[in-house]
Write a structure and sequence with these properties.
The protein is of the alpha/beta class. It is 42% helix and 15% strand. The protein has a 7-stranded mixed sheet with strand order 2-8-7-6-5-3-4, with helices on both faces. Strands 9-10-15-14 form a 4-stranded antiparallel sheet. Strands 1-13 form a two-stranded parallel ribbon. The protein binds pyridoxal-5'-phosphate. Pyridoxal-5'-phosphate (PLP) is lined by residues 38, 98-100, 124, 170, 174, 202, 204, 235, 237, 243, 248.
Length: 398
């Protein structure tokens, strides 16, 4: 029987594919170091875990409103005001099963068949697939390393057509770690207002910035006109080490928020009630835990970048935020490891996993096939071990 063409067109998540291969090798007893999945290695802070336990004990175990509990929707409004200078009412905020689900809701709410969504590459691989699931067409812009992987006005103009419905922005970026400056945000905001298109602003790494002179700015805060066209996406997975709790949120113009709530009510109902109560503790409680984790990530960022810089043939820009190092490996092309020639970043990653038991993500699915991504959301000890092995592999190339 014929299955859904839409579903068949969707690519398997390559980050997940790498982790399952790495998990398989681990199960075979191999000493694997993984720089694969973007997940903080910290435990969820104690006060948040306790709030989850209390939620169970207090009987917060039933359905809630599909868009989330009012207290949490309000806490998100308070957070957006406090951190981003944004004014939202609770009705404009939808709580979902992770930022990924929030993004899917947005695409479902705004796209019609054939609508185009501009996605600057390198991009987090799920955007393009989500756009396709929602019936849209991803239009990829390949940003340039010499522009710090930032979009230019010319690139936007070039990608724009009458069918363009939205542009996706991610700052700090997964996979480059770059933070978009006020000037670059302003350029995109002006473009979106002029063309009357939406901006989907994924701010999930907002709390993880390591340069004192870099600040997270939400594009929605740049004026009334861009506010009306922006959907802000955020969540607690990365900043509060809460990946498994599955809570993300979107803040949008009321009309779009209502559509997202309606879609979610039919497709998923409310996100987990216990996790919502825990998220309330995360957003309303002390933010010291976020700063502690940021400082630890910063140390790791400094270390991994220093190690990478010392390895010949591979190159990266110093990441300013998130927890990824985005490494160009074209310098190794044409070289051989134990007789096997490297012709792509995928080859580089395959040899690294097979011979040195280090898992990294080749970035073809992020729109940049000459790069690998290393997630440094892992211990210093493992980062050191992994970088020693990458160095060893590159030294063995002939
Ligand atoms: C840029 C970006 N957006 C969204 C997400 C999804 O986050 P969540 O775990 O809240 O669904 C990720 C996770 O890797 C991400 O890197």
């Amino acid at each position: 029987m014929e299955l859904s063409q839409k579903a068949l067109r969707i690519k398997q998540s390559s980050t997940m594919a790498i982790s399952s291969k790495a998990a398989q090798l681990k199960a075979e007893g191999k000493d694997i170091v993984t720089f694969g999945v973007g997940e903080p290695d910290f435990d969820t802070p104690v006060h948040i875990r306790k709030a989850g336990i209390a939620a169970i004990e207090n009987g917060d175990t039933r359905y809630t409103a599909a868009a989330g509990i009012p207290a949490l929707r309000q806490a998100v409004c308070d957070k957006l005001k406090r951190d981003n200078g944004l004014d939202y009412e609770a009705a404009q905020v939808i709580i979902s099963n992770g930022a990924k689900h929030s993004l899917m809701n947005v695409f479902m709410a705004i796209l019609n068949e054939g609508d185009e969504v501009i996605i600057p590459a390198p991009y987090w691989l799920s955007y393009s697939e989500m756009v396709k699931i929602a019936g849209g067409s991803p239009v990829i812009i390949h940003t340039k390393k010499e522009n710090q992987f930032m979009l230019t006005k010319e690139e936007l103009e070039h990608a724009y057509t009458e069918k363009t419905k939205a542009v996706v922005l991610t700052s700090p970026s997964n996979p480059t770690g770059m933070v978009t400056s006020y000037e670059d945000l302003k350029m995109t905001a002006d473009f979106a207002v002029e063309k009357d298109i939406f901006v989907i602003s994924d701010e999930i790494y907002e709390k993880l910035i390591y340069e004192d002179d870099k600040k997270h700015i939400s594009i929605a805060s740049l004026g009334e006109e861009i506010y009306k066209r922006t959907i802000v996406i955020n969540g607690v997975s990365k900043s509060y080490a809460m990946t498994g709790w599955r809570i993300g949120f979107a803040a949008a113009p009321l009309e779009i928020a209502k559509l997202m709530a309606s879609l979610q009510s039919h497709m998923a109902s409310n996100p987990n009630t216990i996790a919502q109560v825990a998220t309330l503790a995360a957003l309303n409680g002390s933010q010291d835990c976020v700063e502690e984790m940021r400082l630890e990530f910063k140390k790791r960022r400094d270390y991994i970048f220093e190690r990478e810089e010392a390895i010949p043939l591979i190159h990266a820009l110093k990441p300013e935020g998130a927890f990824y190092l985005f490494v160009n490996v074209t310098g190794t092309y044409g070289k051989k490891h134990e007789g096997v020639e490297i012709q792509s970043a995928a080859d580089f990653a395959a040899i690294l996993l097979d011979k040195k038991f280090v898992a990294v993500v080749p970035c073809a699915d992020f729109g940049m096939p000459d790069y690998i991504r290393l997630s440094y959301a892992t211990s210093m000890e493992l980062i050191k071990k992994g970088m020693d092995r990458i160095e060893e592999m590159v030294q063995e190339l002939a």
